[in-house]
Design goal:
The protein is an alpha+beta fold. The protein has two helices and seven strands, in the order αβββββαββ. Strands 1-7-4-5 form a four-stranded mixed β-sheet, with no helix packed on it. A three-stranded antiparallel β-sheet has the order 2-3-6, with no helix packed on it.
Length: 142
């Protein structure tokens, strides 16, 4: 009987913490000739900002090409709320990392988002210098 009560209390605590921290709808932007995949995408409200994280992997033997992840938040009607870009770390995709789900990426959106916001992610290939910041005028997460 004590075990049942303990399981009930633990379930209630975990359920309450998930209600207190809303998660947003996530989508992956489709790209022509895409050979990479996003896994474990999560967007969680943290104060006035939203933390977006996930993993990126590829079925290619050579791993992922050089690039970054574009992240954009939209209203349900399609109006852009916020956009940013982040590097994935590390840039090398080993077999061990593939088995764990791929390389990690994470970014914080500083604008508050409505609860029905849609967050889209896309991998953006680039042929630029490694030291350049991943900011650019064209965000392909649509």
């Amino acid at each position: 009987m004590k075990r049942v009560a303990l399981v009930f209390v633990l379930t209630a605590l975990f359920a309450q913490s998930s209600w207190a921290n809303p998660m947003y709808q996530m989508e992956v932007a489709k790209q022509l000739g895409q050979k990479w995949h996003f896994h474990r995408l999560v967007a969680v409200k943290a104060g006035d900002s939203v933390q977006v994280s996930g993993r990126l992997t590829s079925r290619l033997a050579i791993g992922l090409p050089r690039g970054h992840v574009d992240i954009a938040a939209y209203t349900p009607s399609g109006k852009l709320i916020s956009k940013t870009a982040t590097d994935y770390v590390p840039a090398l995709l080993t077999q061990k990392m593939k088995s764990k789900g791929g390389v990690r990426f994470s970014v914080t959106l500083d604008k508050p988002l409505p609860p029905d916001a849609i967050i889209k992610v896309a991998f953006h290939r680039e042929q630029t210098d490694l030291n350049a910041k991943p900011y650019h005028f064209e965000n392909i997460a649509r």
